[in-house]
Amino acid sequence: MGIVTPGFTGRRRSDVNLPPGQYLTEDFPVLSAGPTPRIPLDTWEFVIVTETGEKHTWSWAQLMAMPSEDVTVDIHCVTKWSKLGTRWRGVPVSAFFDEVETAADFAMAVSYGGYTTNVPLDDLLDGQAWVAYKFDDDDLAPEHGGPARLVVPHLYFWKSAKWVRGLRMMLEDEPGFWETAGYHDYGDPWREQRYQGD
Amino acid sequence: MAFTETFTDGNALAGPLREIFALEMTSADGRCVTCGRTGPVADLRVYGHENGPGLVARCPGCEEIVLRLVVTPERVWLDLRGLVSLAVIR
Question: In terms of residue numbers, what domain contains A77?
Answer without folding.
Answer: 46-182
